[in-house]
Amino acid sequence: xTGTHPPSEAExxxxxxxxxxxxxxxxxxAVMIVGISAIVILLALRLSAPSAPVVPDALNxxxxxxxxxxxxxxxxxxxxxxxxxxxxxxxxxRPDGTVRDRVPLSP
Length: 107
Known about the structure:
The protein has 107 residues and is an alpha+beta fold. Helices cover 35% and strands 26% of the residues.
């Protein structure tokens, strides 16, 4: 039975290819850490942005009109309305609730 002995200096030196491989693995680990950190930061920035548009507190529809559909945009709100005669209109409101534009819809 042979005992264990400390490796000699010749056995302790590693080949140059192994040193290069060790450096490449370390570099790849650093690049992966930076890449994953960048992805996490970008996701946090994108998901923390407000996603809902600003809705006016009140929209006053003209007398006799009823709302059929509402569309929210950046800086405007559109409401499709139907009047007592059955005619449809698109009313575009500003953020303060005033009518910006009125578009009649043809059948």
